[in-house]
Each structure stands twice: as C-alpha cells, then as structure tokens.
Amino acid sequence: MLNSNMDDGTSQYYFTASMDSGKALYGLLKAIQFQECAVFCAMSEGLKLTVEEGKCVQASAYVPADNFTEYHVREDVDVMFKISIAVLTECLNIFGASEESSLKMYYRSEGSPLLLVLQPQSVHNVMTDCEISTQTADSVLELRDEDASEVAKLVLKASAFLGLLVDLERSCDVMELNLSPDHPNVSIVTYGMQDRSCIEVPKSSDMMQSFSCEQAVSLKYQLPHIRLIMKALAISSKVVLRCSSNGLLLLQLKLEKDDQRQMFSEFHIVPLLDDY
C-alpha cells in the first residue's frame, strides 16, 4: 500500500497533490475527453491536461494550484507526460458519481506511473490505489499566432449557448459564424446536404453578457468540432468566445463550482481552410 501521508518524503517525487474531493476534477476532465490520451503537465501554478483532434481542435483543462489542499512540483524538472485520460477519469469515478472521494496524486520520476489514492468520505478505513502508466509526451500544437489580432470577443451564459447548440440541425456538418457591430450582431448559419438554417442572437439577448466587435467577420467551422464543447458547457457558468484575424476560434469556459476556487477549460478550433 502506498503511504498516503503526503508529508512523508514528497521531495522524492516530481509531483504530489491532494484534494478533499475529486468530483469537480472528474467533471472537468470528462468534458475534454474526446480522445483516448492527454498530455498531463504539472506546473507551479497548477495542472494542465490537453487533448487534440488532429490539427483542428485543441482542448485543455486548467486546475489552479489553490484547488488542492497540498500541491508540490519539483522546480528543477519538467513534469509532462502522456496519459490515458479515459483510464484517469475511470479511476477518479471508481466509487461512483454519487460518492465524494478524497484524492491524492503522486508522480515519482520520468517514466513512472501516475499513482492515485482515493478514499470515499462516507466510508471509513476504505482506500483504493490506482497506477496509471505514462509515456513520453508528444509536442503540443501551438495554435495561437502572435501576429493575429482579436477581432471579436463575446461573453455568453453557458447554459443558453448550450441550448442554442442543441437546437442546431444534427444533419448539418458546417457552421458559419457571422459577427457584426450592427444588428443582429451574431448569426449562426448551418449547412447540410440539403438544409440551411439560421439563428440570430442580438447583443441585447439574455444570453449575451458582453459583446465587442469592431468590424464584420464571417467564419466557417466543422460543426462536429464545435459540438465538442457541449460537455464543458453543461458544467460551466459562462463562456468567453474570442475570434482572431486568422480565423482561430477560442472558447474559454469557467466551471460551475460550489466554492470560490476556479477551474477552467479552453478550446481552440481551427476554421475551414476553404476560407483561409
């Protein structure tokens, strides 16, 4: 049995962390789990896990260090590895969705497994250890272009934006996003084999918390790529949508939590190349 007292010898590990409940972390990771593996990066400011869909979509989950009751990362090494996010979420949920479980994580050194210790809060003297194998991380795509400027920024209520995406025709495979300083400000057009539909959202809409757009812009994306954010929207309170001059779409989502500590997810979505 792995010693669960994190005061004992944390210096021998590259990374150690603990939290009273892993439920919020589980929900955050499930929201970006659209691939088998993720790049796990532990930094002094917190955890970042990243998954990619080809070279078109990149999603990251951010867990700032203040979400943990204890958090330690060796400063003289880079703690970054590839891990099965499917196995990680399965382990975090090992006692079931209704159970609050404390979580401890240990990573000894490069090539070592990530060790988890989970203890349900409703049952005393019960503890589970999980070892998850790790691999050398592939390089993560750098999708941001420093030369690209921001052309629009929207802050939306996550639940309302989710409802809008749910209403989009499932048979469509392309979404056109039109933004303008003039009414109706936002229009979303979807295209399928035979169908075309349009939804308009003025900046005065209850969905819109803020709107900034200095000139009209029209961008096209694969609708299945946009739909990848739906799980994250379902557990978030608001979403910040940013469009760059190169067409890159950035969506930043704040997780809805009971406490004041924050967790985030972030999605970069590349536009259809036909327009760029």
TrEMBL record:
GO cellular component, one term: checkpoint clamp complex
Membrane spanning residue stretches: none
InterPro entries, A to Z: Cell_cycle_checkpoint_Rad1, DNA_clamp_sf, Rad1_Rec1_Rad17
UniProt main location, coarse: nucleus
Keywords noted in UniProt: DNA damage, DNA repair, Nucleus
Biological processes, Gene Ontology terms: DNA damage checkpoint signaling; DNA repair
Cell location: Nucleus
Superkingdom of this protein's organism: Eukaryota
Record family assignment: Belongs to the rad1 family.
Protein name (Swiss-Prot/TrEMBL): Checkpoint protein
